[in-house]
Please model this.
Amino acid sequence: MKKEQVANCQFSVWYPIFKKHTIKSLILPLPQNVIDYLLDDGTLVVSGSCCSFPNAPAAHTNNSGSEEEEDVQWSDDETTTTVTAPEFPEFTSKVLEAINALGGSVFPKLNWSAPRDANWIALNSSLQCFSLSDVFLLFKSSDFVTHDLTQPFLQCSDQDSPDPLINYELVLRKWSELIPGGEFRCFVKENKLIAISQRDYTQYYQHILKQEEHIRQAVQEFFSQHIQYKFPDEDFVFDVYRDSQGRVWLIDLNPFGEVTDSLLFSWDELLSGGEITRDHQDGPSFRYTTSEVTVQPSPCLSYRIPRDFVDLSTGEDAFKLIDFLKLKKSQQEESEDEEEEEETAPQ
Ligand SMILES: Nc1ncnc2c1ncn2[C@@H]1O[C@H](COP(=O)(O)OP(=O)(O)OP(=O)(O)O)[C@@H](O)[C@H]1O
Ligand SMILES: [Mg+2]
Model:
């Protein structure tokens, strides 16, 4: 996979070509100060969409209860400014305008990636955003978004060639309730559709099994009519959604290579080509999960914080909280014992 191929899969490259066949979206250039804010680990604080707290006190004042406070002077100006949410009035109003134009709620992305690994942090556990602060919270919590910003060409084979110039963009897509069983990933090699995989492979969907041939044909037809030869590259991966009326929509374009999840295929198979085309003579090979037995945990699970942390922080599980406090207490007692031992130890 070459850097050029990755650059071609940016949203702003493919969207104008396939606009008619995908979800309505708006692209806003990301100002440098917003990029800096997204990359800054120190400021998770996000200001509200309409109001802010310019004189908000530092988040870490006064919780140590120690007598040293006066010496340390937590409340000096420098400390205060580091935790105050930054303001981007012009950008904020552009984003709000775009969200309104898209019906009031959006699915956010950067040039390539959505913050799929961060949905657990949102109040609604979803990527549905109603304001810029919703978007910021997700973006700042997402490794996928950081990857776009810091190392988009990491896995490219032509590391010695210069990086293509990237203009970072915020992509806002009209929020659409997509049923996961209707999503498929399609692999194109030398402008030929070689493979289709169920996208949400952790679940078994009976309708896919029943409609296998329909789905294969619908996707193949969509590809030949609307996608084939229209994209600047001959190898790529595209994602589609087949709605309840059987109509196929384009969801995303991805590079043909390891950065893209190959789902129910392996990159070895896809890159060698020959083997997989054989399991269906005149069309793409189509793989889907065929029984409950193979159901697996959600792929983004490892990005979440442990369930115990959530329960403790929300105070939802009183027993866990009690166990936690007991643990703390016994640890404290242990360390006190150790101190005592040290004190009484012979010199
Ligand atoms: N406009 C939308 N409204 C609601 N959900 C959406 C929308 N667009 C995409 N999704 C959901 O989010 C998922 C991820 O979207 P998308 O493929 O654009 O992200 P991505 O970061 O490129 O993912 P990947 O890394 O797998 O390529 C989709 O599979 C779909 O379920
Ligand atoms: Mg993608």
Observations:
- Residues 252, 254 surround magnesium ion (ligand 2) (CB under 6 Å).
- The first helix runs from residue 3 to 8.
- The mean pLDDT is 84.
- The chain has two domains: 3-65+77-174, 180-300.
